[in-house]
Backbone:
């Protein structure tokens, strides 16, 4: 059913000329001009979570409550277009072909931030959400990113036990609590693939990092050497507060 829906969407895309999801220029799903106009986070940034910050220092939330991740990096602020509009179209309007240019952006970010990974894992979507949406946007991003970087991709290692539909109004500590034990190994899968390996988890957006932390927990428990998170966008706030 998911595959049929996806093919149907793609068939409709072919019937109608492709337009840029942001500026409506005909030709590609996200045009070169819009891609070039994305304003990447500029240094200095928090050494841990990657948000703009004083040089060489962790941001205030990372200082007091370090993320349970080896590190996190994002390309840009979630409040800015064309990235925000692209993520919306990708996630909520079935524009699955955005997985190409957005996944390539993540591959660029991997090199830009000098990350090192032996294995890429997308954040799994809960099966109910997967049935509703028809695709896991994190998986589409991770596929392109892994192909471009020639890094092995693992999509069937973890599954998501809990949905996060009630996350929106929760504070960072509550989100963490809510996401405890959210991800498990698939029955029959082996944890050997992550033992002493450097893992990169990919998602579209990270607000507090709580989902990435929850996803990293079983990987660390299985002996992963490092688990980094890489996302397209993060909400940004002033005064060093981590968004809630
Ligand atoms: Zn455009
Ligand atoms: Zn930080």
Residues:
């Amino acid at each position: 059913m998911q595959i049929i829906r996806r093919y149907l969407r793609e068939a409709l895309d072919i019937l109608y000329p492709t337009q840029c999801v942001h500026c409506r220029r005909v030709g590609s799903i996200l045009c070169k001009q819009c891609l070039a106009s994305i304003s990447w986070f500029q240094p200095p940034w928090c050494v841990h979570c990657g948000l703009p910050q004083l040089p060489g220092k962790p941001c205030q939330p990372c200082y007091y409550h370090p993320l349970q991740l080896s590190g996190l990096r994002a390309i840009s602020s979630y409040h800015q277009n064309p990235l925000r509009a692209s993520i919306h179209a990708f996630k909520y309007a079935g524009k699955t072909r955005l997985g190409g240019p957005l996944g390539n952006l993540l591959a660029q970010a991997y090199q830009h931030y000098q990350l090192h990974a032996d294995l890429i894992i997308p954040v799994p979507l809960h099966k109910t959400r997967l049935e509703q949406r028809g695709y896991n946007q994190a998986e589409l991003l991770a596929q392109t990113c892994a192909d471009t970087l020639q890094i092995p991709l693992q999509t069937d290692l973890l599954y998501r036990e809990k949905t996060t539909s009630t996350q929106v109004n929760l504070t960072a500590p509550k989100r963490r609590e809510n996401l405890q034990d959210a991800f498990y190994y698939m029955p029959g899968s082996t944890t050997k693939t992550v033992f002493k390996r450097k893992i990169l988890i990919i998602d579209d957006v990270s607000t507090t990092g709580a989902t990435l932390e929850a996803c990293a927990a079983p990987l660390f428990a299985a002996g992963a050497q490092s688990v980094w998170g890489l996302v397209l966008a993060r909400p940004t706030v002033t005064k060093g507060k981590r968004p809630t």
